[in-house]
Design goal:
Blueprint lengths: L1 H33 L3 H16 L5 E7 L3 E6 L6 H9 L35 E8 L16 E9 L5 H19 L11 E6 L3 H24 L3 E7 L5 E6 L4 E2 L4 E7 L2 E9 L3 E5 L1 E7 L2 E5 L9 E3 L1 E2 L11 E4 L21 H25 L3 E2 L16 H18 L5 E2 L4 E2 L5 E3 L1 H4 L4 H14 L9 H11 L5 E3 L1 H11 L7 H13 L4 H5 L3 E2 L5 E2 L5 E3 L7 H7 L1 H5 L14 E3 L1 H15 L13 H9 L10 H12 L21 H16 L3 H18 L3 H7 L5 E2 L5 E2 L6 E2 L4 H10 L24 E2 L1 H13 L14 H9 L8 H7 L1 H5 L1 H9 L2 H7 L3 H12 L3 H39 L6 E4 L7 E5 L2 E11 L6 E3 L1 H9 L4 E7 L21 E4 L7 H8 L15 E3 L1 H5 L4 H15 L6
Parallel strand pairs: 1-6, 13-17, 14-16, 20-21, 24-25, 28-29, 32-34
Antiparallel strand pairs: 1-2, 2-5, 3-4, 3-5, 6-7, 7-9, 8-9, 9-10, 10-11, 11-16, 12-13, 14-15, 18-19, 22-23, 26-27, 30-31, 31-32, 33-36, 34-35
Helix pairs in contact: 1-4, 2-5, 3-4, 9-12, 14-17, 17-19, 18-19, 18-20, 22-23, 31-32
Length: 1060
């Protein structure tokens, strides 16, 4: 009895301790499931993968999802009694004593521990099917080790939060296992292990769907990192299956390795670096045979964790670089969301140091690869991400990442990551845009900013990369990389000075962005805004045009550039920028200020700045409406014509109020300049243009204000076309020209009367102008003829005898103006008889009157000839020419006689030489034995302006007989003797004679011309064309003595030794 009681106590104790143990498991499970959050849910699917692959030599997994459940099955290692119980109690099958710093690939990861509780993200109830295979050997009992026990739909329910109920659930599960273990072993093919999760709610369902979706991204990497995971099939709600199949062959490239994952019919290549402990995924797609590139970089998916311990460490998606690092030796944190890297917990130091070494090794591996291959990879900027978390609440962890970041940046900044339009450069050589510049910009604005900055910063990243690099360098967060903001850009724009250097549309987009981002003060401090001339000015230096039309500005730009300089280009009236208004009155005031500066009383147009006059003319012709034209405007049109300027009249409708332009000052100043210019013109110009400027005067004198201006200037032409003041001129009251001419001759030759008379074209424009009559002038003339009494007649020696006689001659009735003469010269008419009586008593008159009557008639006829002077001159010239021709004939005869004497004296008596003159032929020809052997042409010169010429015939003869032809030139222009027309001896003119014996050799170029002349059936030269002999050639000729010697030498050479 006592023993039974003791046994009961023991059983009770055993029961209570077992219950107590179950309570600990139940509490842990309840609390663990309560803690499941989004990050735990992401881990859940990988817990299933881990438990499937663990210790399995070649694992294949199938995952399917429907609207109600998630089914996960695998062909991995079946349950043991131990692992099945671990599944019930959520105790890891791997103990702490098994934890290693350096793992082998065959080492188990651990099954069904705390982490496995996350699978209940998919549902509180899971049905498990599979097999139990264990070492079932017991004492004295032998069982085949390959046998197993199959089971189906073992229900694990975690829906309760009551620990006692959960304890009962666990106990019941164990009882079910005990019952299963009582069944006989089977040796059939092992069934798949299946976990079937029913969705309790939408949260379970959504988490399951999210998990399946994440597999599409992460699974290829997991398969590369796990050699034992060979195949995975995913089936969606529509029954579509995606199969991931790993190629076990690793492809070895020069600098990296490739593994292929076939996803249905497509192949995904994963490139990586590896060491014994590490595998680093390289994020680029392979390129073959394309300009030496090995790949094109890509951004890894944001949902892809960057650290793996065979499976993703959920939570490392934002680790800070665009690489994936896997190490079998990573020491993860308990939630498997990161690594132990740096903390104050001494118990984690071993793990932290191990992880730090692995990270250092991975960094070096990446640096080495990029240093060797970055130039061969497209889109290199995608590899430049460095964004480790350095500002978390964990200061110790921050310090580690700060140091790691500095190490990465120190290396990355020297590598040619940055692509410009021309080449690749390192970040430390490049210039980047500040975040404030491009943050929130649209693509068009961003391109505009790029184009502008690129003008002065060639080392800027390509336009499509500029935002990327701003983001990258912001993440790097270092100070010694060049970044420029709006202020620096503004400085560079200002340096150019004008908008012509830029695209205006791009500049406007940039300026709008500056304003939008609150940096509008740059426009006040820097010259960035273009005026209408394109010159950059500060905002305060510019105004906004109000009611000023576009055609006013070109005028202002010339007359007063201050106006156009301060007018902002209307395209740059941007919202957010304020400008002072600038209206018509401001415009006029500045124009008038310029006029005061440039136009004084004596200003000429030549002293004005370039185009000033043309612009002033345009300005002064402004009218308020199309068909209006005031008097001054009509005058201005005539002035524009005077200056050969085209007038494009500006129509400027008037505005209500006072903000209008009054051009009257400009008009009067224009008149000043015009009148000053006119006053400088000479008589020739005035005569040629008098009709034009007279029209200006006629128009101007119609308006009182304009007339006052014009009256101040000496610009009015007299009858000599000289310009005078209008007050100094008199109106010509139809005074005959002969009266004016006689007045000038008789009264005042130095001050002609026409100088005092206004030109007829202007004599009627000025009403106050006094007149002069013909009798006013003739009375003064006759006073000079006959004295104050009008009767003083002394015609014989009278100074104006000829003029008086001429007047009397015009009294004759047959003269056309006899009546006018009688009327204008009354004193002369009265004294006519007395004058004629005095004329008859003169000696000259007597000489004429004493001639024969027929001679007197001839003389009278000659005297009456209308061109008496020309008649006398031509007669004298003809007489002189005759004298010269007769003298030349005498010279020829004397020269011929002289040469004949010389030849007769020097030639042998057996040779007969004669020198003859030929009628209408050669002047002199020397004959020997009646044969012509030498030709001499004689020419005389009587005037310096008249050259020596020889006829066509003599030219041809000189060419025909070049050695036996001579030209004798006699220059009588310097002969001083009184006998120049009657020289008796040749010795008198020897010094005036020159002989040229080589004429024939100088006229060859004329022979063809003369030979072909005078052909009646062809176009040819005609007339008496002669050959001109240059005066210098004549001066260089022989004197008479040397010619005689030359002539005798010629005969000696050609006619034997007959010379003495």
């Amino acid at each position: 009895m006592k023993q039974t009681v003791q046994e009961s106590r023991v059983d009770l104790y055993r029961l209570k301790t077992q219950r107590n143990d179950l309570k600990q498991h139940a509490d842990k499970i309840i609390q663990g499931i309560k803690k499941i959050g989004p990050s735990h849910a992401k881990r859940a699917i990988w817990e299933l993968f881990q438990n499937a692959v663990d210790l399995s030599p070649s694992c294949e997994i199938s995952v399917s999802i429907s609207e109600n459940e998630l089914i996960f099955s695998h062909n991995g290692v079946p349950f043991t009694m131990h692992t099945l119980d671990c599944l019930f109690t959520q105790v890891s099958s791997k103990t702490l004593t098994e934890k290693k710093i350096d793992r082998e690939d065959v080492d188990p990861i651990g099954q069904y521990g705390t982490g496995f509780m996350t699978v209940h993200s998919f549902g509180d109830v899971v049905q498990v099917s599979g097999a139990i295979r264990d070492d079932f050997t017991v004492e004295d009992l032998h069982v085949e080790p390959e046998g197993h026990i199959q089971f189906e739909n073992l229900l694990i329910d975690r829906s309760t939060q009551d620990w006692e109920k959960l304890c009962d659930e666990i106990s019941n599960l164990r009882k079910n296992v005990i019952e299963l273990l009582g069944r006989p072993l089977t040796y059939e093919e092992l069934p798949s292990t299946v976990f079937k999760f029913e969705f309790n709610n939408e949260l379970n369902k959504r988490r399951a769907f999210d998990a399946i979706e994440s597999l599409k991204t992460i699974l290829p990497y997991v398969m590369v990192f796990n050699d034992r995971l060979k195949k995975v099939s995913l089936t969606d709600t529509k029954g579509n299956t995606t199969t991931f199949l790993k190629d076990d062959n690793e492809e070895s490239m020069e600098h990296y390795f490739i593994r292929k994952i076939q996803i249905n019919n497509e192949v995904k290549k994963i490139n990586y670096l590896k060491t014994e402990k590490l595998l680093v995924v390289l994020p680029f797609q392979n390129i073959s045979n394309e300009d030496g590139y090995i790949g094109e970089a890509e951004s890894l998916p944001d949902s892809l964790p960057r650290l793996f311990l065979f499976y993703p460490l959920i939570g490392t998606e934002d680790f800070g670089f665009n690489f994936v690092i896997h190490s079998k030796n990573f020491q993860p944190t308990e939630p498997r969301d990161g690594l132990h890297l740096n903390s104050e917990n001494e118990k984690n130091k071993i793990e932290e140091e191990a992880n730090q070494k692995l990270m250092e090794e991975a960094s070096s591996l990446i640096f080495k690869f990029l240093g060797d291959n970055l130039a061969k990879i497209k889109n290199p900027h995608l590899l430049a991400e460095i964004n480790f978390s350095v500002s978390s609440d964990d200061l110790k962890l921050n310090s580690y990442f700060i140091e790691l970041k500095e190490k990465w940046i120190t290396k990355f900044r020297t590598l040619p990551f940055v692509e410009t339009l021309t080449n690749r450069i390192s970040a430390q050589e490049a210039v980047f845009l500040d975040t404030s510049v491009i943050d929130g910009t649209d693509s068009q604005t961003r391109q505009a900013i790029y184009n502008i900055v690129g003008m002065f910063c060639p080392n800027i990243p390509k336009p499509d990369l500029i935002s990327n690099w701003t983001e990258i360098t912001d993440e790097w967060n270092i100070t010694d990389i060049t970044k420029i903001g709006f202020s620096k850009i503004a400085e560079k724009i200002q340096e150019k000075g004008t908008i012509q250097s830029y695209n205006r549309t791009e500049l406007i987009l940039l300026y709008k962005e500056i304003i939008r981002k609150g940096e509008g003060e740059l426009f006040a401090n820097k010259a960035l805004l273009p005026n209408i001339k394109g010159q950059f000015r500060k905002q305060i230096e510019l105004s906004r045009s109000v009611e000023l039309t576009a055609d006013l500005m070109p005028l202002a730009d010339v007359i007063n550039p201050k106006i156009s300089n301060r007018q902002i280009d209307e395209d740059f009236l941007l919202e957010g920028l304020e400008f002072e208004p600038f209206g018509r009155r401001h415009y006029m005031e500045l124009i008038n200020a310029s006029l005061d500066e440039h136009i004084k009383d004596g200003t000429r147009s030549g002293k004005l700045p370039e185009n000033y006059l043309a612009s002033l003319i345009q300005y002064t012709s402004i009218v308020p409406k199309e068909d209006s034209a005031s008097g001054p405007v009509r005058i201005i049109k005539l002035i524009a014509t005077h200056y050969n300027l085209q007038l494009n009249q500006i129509v400027l409708p008037s505005l209500p109020g006072e903000d209008n332009i009054d051009v009257r000052k400009g008009q009067f100043d224009l008149f000043k300049v015009y009148l000053n210019d006119l006053s400088d013109k000479d008589e020739e110009w005035v005569k040629a243009h008098i009709n034009d400027f007279a029209q200006v005067f006629i128009e101007a004198f119609n308006y009182a204000d304009v007339k006052k201006v014009f009256l101040r200037y000496d610009v009015y032409p007299n009858q000599l076309f000289k310009l005078k003041s209008i007050s100094s001129l008199n109106k010509d009251n139809s005074i005959p020209s002969f009266v004016k001419d006689l007045y000038d001759k008789i009264v005042d030759p130095l001050e002609p009367i026409r100088a005092k008379l206004a030109h007829s074209i202007i004599e009627n424009i000025y009403e106050e102008m006094k007149s002069i009559r013909s009798l006013d002038l003739t009375s003064i003339i006759e006073q000079r003829f006959f004295g104050d009494s009008g009767n003083e007649i002394h015609i014989e020696n009278h100074t104006y005898r000829t003029d008086i006689i001429d007047i009397i001659r015009n009294f004759k009735p047959d003269q056309p103006q006899s009546e006018i003469y009688e009327k204008l010269f009354p004193a002369t008419s009265r004294n006519k008889s007395a004058i004629l009586v005095q004329l008859a008593n003169g000696e000259a008159s007597f000489a004429i009157l004493s001639q024969d009557e027929s001679v007197i008639k001839k003389l009278a006829g000659i005297a009456a000839h209308p061109n008496l002077g020309d008649l006398i001159k031509f007669g004298e010239d003809a007489l002189l020419k005759k004298q010269q021709e007769e003298a030349e004939m005498k010279y020829k005869k004397k020269i011929g006689n002289h040469l004949e004497d010389v030849l007769r004296e020097r030639l042998s008596q057996s040779i007969t030489a004669k020198v003859l003159s030929e009628q209408d032929g050669q002047d002199l020809v020397i004959y020997i034995e009646d044969k012509p052997v030498y030709y001499i042409e004689v020419k005389s010169k009587w005037l310096e302006t008249t050259p020596i010429r020889i006829s066509r015939k003599q030219t041809l003869r000189a060419h025909e007989y070049p050695r036996s032809f001579a030209l004798c030139s006699i220059d009588m222009t310097q002969y001083q003797g009184a006998d120049k027309y009657a020289v008796e001896s040749i010795e008198s003119i020897v010094e005036n004679m020159k002989f040229n014996t080589d004429v024939g050799s100088n006229v060859g170029h004329l022979v063809d011309i003369f030979t072909t002349a005078h052909q009646e059936d062809k176009f040819s030269l005609d007339g008496d064309y002669r050959t001109l002999i240059p005066s210098k050639y004549i001066k260089d000729g022989l004197d008479l003595a040397h010619f005689e010697t030359s002539l005798l030498d010629y005969f000696n050479a050609n006619y034997g030794k007959g010379i003495n």
